[in-house]
Write a structure and sequence with these properties.
Blueprint (H helix, E strand, L loop, with lengths): L19 E9 L5 E10 L4 E5 L6 H9 L6 E6 L2 E2 L7 E4 L11 H12 L6 H15 L14 H13 L5 E4 L8 H16 L4 E4 L3 H5 L3 E6 L3 E6 L1 H8 L4 H10 L4 H10 L7 H6 L29 H4 L31 H18 L1 H21 L12 H24 L6 H9 L4 H29 L8 H28 L3 H17 L12 H8 L2 H12 L2 H7 L5 H8 L7 H28 L10
Bound molecules: adenosine-5'-triphosphate.
The site of adenosine-5'-triphosphate (ATP) has 15 residues, from helix 1.
Membrane topology: Multi-pass membrane protein
Keywords: ATP-binding, Membrane, Nucleotide-binding, Transmembrane, Transmembrane helix, Transport
InterPro entries: AAA+_ATPase (IPR003593), ABC2_TM (IPR013525), ABC_transporter-like_ATP-bd (IPR003439), ABC_transporter-like_CS (IPR017871), ABCG_transporters (IPR050352), P-loop_NTPase (IPR027417)
Length: about 625
């Protein structure tokens, strides 16, 4: 680590790592609170750097600013002298939680991750070789076939790092990688990071553990309110704070009532003729790096420079907050052309990949699959127990029962569509955010959700209508009429699925999604126009009923089943008065209802994509929480 005012940055062409420089970083969070104040530091290729400080001092803020996850309010971050936002080299960020799919075997997780992160032209053999290489350097080859959820905490942490290593990052940031690990496992992990740094890739991590610092080349100490108190090697830090252990540094820093004093002191000692850190930087004492590269068992480089023809090392984008590719690029060869091999997977192939992954996750989650498939079956059985046969008999119809049959079919398909979508995104938002940083588009992601779930709903809808018809709960119908009914419920399901996805994208966690369920369902019951016909609703209720997708499904079903004719001309004296109450509810041509139902589906789907794009682009939590 060097200090501010160092000589002009040079473009690193011979080492895989990038030089990271931060200059006068300030960060301001919601409410105007400043969390970083004038932080300047530099990290060289090959350095393993720990950011330490008391809880809440801004360690994650600094890490996020350095990584481009949460750009600073002011100040600059440069990689090899180029503004961070303009660099397209692969930069890895490992969030605090091991946010990867836990139901898949480790090798499958890495394979999917490699498909997303490596250039589109990477062949299967090369892909498998890279996955095997990463497994090997992580020491997880023997765990490759094990479900991620069954890995130990340390193994999961290594797996999470492995996801980022696939793309051969040129700088690696980790938020509290050792949190929750026992000391030997933490040391094992630091050994891995040390080796990665030794290969020339700068590694920056935040930590709460003073012992982690013993294994790092450099340490940055933050004081309260985001003041940088020190930046240099650990031995120099002990001398600077006049303490015996790293743990004592925390106490020493906290003793100062005005944390700004620490920045001022550092500014003084950073003067060229008064800089205790500079000599240490140039030649770190041997005891500052106890886990030497030579002591490590495996000689395979963790992040070998990509072969020159692949362009892997240069073309991959830096994980900026907006999930889009940034403008300029750092290129080792200095050329501006991207080859086919260098391009990331296109939207269609991303969609296909995520659909396959979604199906595999579903197939491996037997209980989830059983609930998804079993619930509609259970509801069909309940309908059979609830509805009498021949309700729609022309000679002896039961008009009030026909309304309920139509309503419950409409509500049933709405409810299942909604439930299928409701927990899909909020349960894995942190994974999505991580993958969008690696180049995944939110539209392919959302489409893949529909591609996995809509066929399941389509089968459930077909079973529902087929069983009700087969057991005479619905009248005999020509195939074309049955097709009409099916299209109506399919469109209603698609709209409800999209509404569920929208809600899942908008909330912060699964608990909020679950709590939103009554608010999504109640209006679809009250304003559908079944329990209380639309013509007799209060004016506001009538207006609201237009916005209920359920209403259009209910009315389309009634139109296709000829409810008007049945009530007016059928053998029940209750029909005509009921028809008078419902008015023209069922007289609209069914294609108009389809257009509205399709419109709802498209609208909710587009809104889902917009919310995802906004949330994935918004600087925010990187810790595995929801947005
Ligand atoms: N989105 C936000 N809005 C408002 N304040 C925030 C936000 N994110 C973080 N903060 C505040 O910014 C400060 C620095 O947060 P940061 O997460 O960087 O601290 P930290 O040093 O990493 O803490 P810890 O070690 O406990 O993880 C804290 O006071 C925190 O409450």
């Amino acid at each position: 680590m060097t200090v501010r005012g160092s000589s002009a940055p040079e473009i690193a062409t011979e080492r895989p790592g990038l030089r990271v420089e931060a200059e006068d970083l300030e960060q301001i969070v919601r409410g105007g609170h400043r969390t970083l104040r004038g932080v300047s530091l530099a990290v060289r290729p090959g350095e393993l750097v720990a950011i330490i400080g008391a809880s809440g001092v801004g360690k994650t803020m600094l890490l996020d600013a350095l990584a481009g996850i949460r750009p600073p309010a002011s100040g600059r971050v440069r990689y090899d002298g180029v503004d961070q936002g303009r660099v397209r080299a692969p930069v890895a960020y490992v969030p605090q939680d091991d946010i990867i799919h836990t139901s898949l075997p480790l090798v499958r997780v890495l394979r999917y991750a490699a498909r997303l992160r490596l250039p589109a032209g990477t062949g299967p053999a090369e892909l498998d070789a890279r996955v095997a290489e990463v497994l090997s350097v992580l020491g997880l080859t023997h765990r490759a076939g094990l479900r991620v959820g069954l890995l130990s905490g340390g193994e999961r942490k290594r797996a999470s790092i492995g996801v980022e290593l696939l793309a051969r990052p040129r700088v690696l940031f980790l938020d509290e990688p050792t949190s929750g690990l026992d000391p030997p496992t933490a040391i094992e992990l630091l050994r891995l990071l040390r080796r990665l740094a030794a290969d020339g890739v700068p590694v920056v991590l935040t930590t709460h553990s003073p012992t982690d610092v013993d294994h790092c080349d450099k340490v940055a100490v933050l004081a309260r309110d985001g003041h940088l108190a020190f930046a240099g090697n650990p031995a120099a830090a002990l001398a600077y704070f006049e303490v015996d252990t790293v743990a004592d540094i925390y106490e020493r820093v906290a003793e100062e009532p005005d944390p700004a004093q620490w920045s001022r002191r550092l500014a003084v000692v950073r003067q060229p003729d008064h800089d205790p850190a500079a000599p240490s930087d140039a030649a770190p004492p041997p005891d500052a790096v106890p886990l030497s590269r030579a002591a490590l068992p495996d000689g395979v480089p963790l992040c070998p420079a990509a072969p020159p023809d692949t362009g892997v090392a240069d073309e991959r984008r830096v994980g900026g907050p907006d999930g889009r590719r940034a403008g300029g690029a750092l290129r080792q060869d200095g050329s501006g052309a991207a080859t086919d091999r260098q391009r990331r997977l296109g939207p269609i192939r991303q969609t296909a990949l995520l659909t396959v992954r979604g199906l595999e996750i579903l197939a491996r989650n037997r209980l989830t699959l059983a609930i998804l498939v079993g619930s509609p079956v259970a509801v069909v059985l309940m309908f059979l127990m609830l509805f009498k046969a021949n309700t729609f008999s022309f000679a002896r119809p039961s008009p009030s029962a026909t309304v309920m049959v139509l309503f419950w079919i409409a509500f049933g398909v709405f409810f299942f569509g909604l439930i299928y979508g409701l927990l899909q995104i909020c349960t894995e938002f942190a994974i999505l955010r991580r993958e969008t940083r690696a180049g995944l588009g939110v539209v392919p992601y959302a489409v893949s959700k529909v591609a996995v779930l809509l066929p399941l709903l389509a089968v459930a809808d077909l079973v529902l209508l087929g069983v009700l018809r087969g057991l005479d709960r619905l009248p005999a119908l020509a195939w074309s009429r049955f097709g009409e009914l099916y299209l109506t419920v399919l469109l209603a399901s698609a709209g409800a699925l999209a509404l569920g996805l929208l809600c899942s994208a908008a909330v912060s966690d699964p608990a909020q999604a679950t709590l939103s369920l009554p608010m999504l369902c109640f209006p679809q019951v009250l304003f559908v126009g079944a329990i209380l016909p639309v013509p007799v609703m209060a004016p506001v209720g009538r207006w609201l009923s237009w916005a209920m997708s359920n209403r259009w499904c209910f009315e389309a079903l009634g139109h296709t089943l000829g409810v008007e004719h049945l009530w007016r001309d059928g053998g029940s004296p209750l029909g005509p008065p009921l028809l008078a109450t419902y008015g023209h509810t069922f007289s609209r041509p069914v294609w108009q209802d389809w257009a509205v139902l399709g419109g709802f589906a498209v609208l909710f789907f587009a809104a889902t994509c917009a919310v995802l794009a906004a949330k994935c682009g918004r600087p925010g939590s990187t810790r595995g929480r929801g947005a």
